[in-house]
Amino acid sequence: MHPIADKVLARDMRATARACRLVDDRVGDYAAILKDLFPHTGRAWVLGVTGNPGAGKSTLTDRLIGVFRGQGRRVAVVAVDPTSPFTGGAILGDRIRMQAHFGDPDVFIRSLATRGALGGLSRSVVDVVRVLDAWGADVVVVETVGVGQDELEITRMAHTTLVVAAPGMGDEVQAIKAGILECADVFAVNKADRDGADAAVRDLELMIALGGEVAAASGRARGHSAAAHHARAQRAPSAGGEPVEGPWEPVIARTVATRNEGVAALVDKLEGHRAWLFGTEAGAARREERLREAMHVQLRDALTDAAVAALGPALEAAVHAVARREVDPYTASERLVAAFRSAGAVTPGAAVAPGGGT
């Protein structure tokens, strides 16, 4: 057992912070730490919080921490902040809104930069979540940057995805755009004391209803029975009831995070999704699909790193050859892949020589 991993399992806060830093920076023997910790993961409920900037995600996350701590749960937060395209740095300011919990030994807050990654998450977020899972967190909240309706990466790593919207910010338009329905398990219309809150809720309800009709029509096109359509239209009830089989239909909560209003009801809806996810066959299928997607991402990253390391100068030669229009990027990529498959026996320029092979 790696000594840092051993301390993480002993819930040493400083060792856990160091492990998160090594994993985020991809330095040292971070992989050995992750391998030792992995058998002790899988117990935490991972809650993703996303939505447009300014919707109140950080304030709402702070309130969620309070509710979870009131239930006696150990909470970890991964707050992702945007990275400057000029300096590569990040302000990491989300934690400022969570200062009330810094003295709590059962709350661990970690800020990460996106490092230019698309989709609002850096590649290390999944691994940092696993470190915090092994640390003993009952709930890991991942707050994303909030890049708009195409921010779907969070759905591939979180058990439950909460999309935060606010009236008067154009969210009623965002609600009808592709992607947001697939992203959300629960919607929170935050700042619900503002004008336009009722309209925002109606727009979301309409979007959910239209999404259900599209899914039913798709099912009929594939020849499913009417009884099956009815079963799929059902959703799990909120916390306290038995989860119902069938796909999850997104639910909506109203909150005013600054006044801590509606947060308890929101947690009930989140718990309803968790009950469905871990208590139904449909939920189990969804968890397996997300694990499959996570493995694909892990494999893609590992293959990319291995290919870049193995190809070395040949990759640079390919860039120069494409820039000189000696070869198109598609052919160059095919030759590089072929070279990588042949055990990396590549000399500089051989893989991209005009008209040549590998």
From TrEMBL:
It holds the Pfam family MeaB. It comes from the Bacteria. One of its GO terms (molecular function) is GTPase activity. InterPro entries: GTPase/Isobutyryl-CoA_mutase, GTPase_ArgK, P-loop_NTPase. The keyword Transcription does not apply. Keywords: Chaperone, GTP-binding, Hydrolase, Kinase, Nucleotide-binding, Transferase. Residues 225-246 are annotated as: Disordered. Belongs to the SIMIBI class G3E GTPase family. ArgK/MeaB subfamily. This is Transport system kinase.
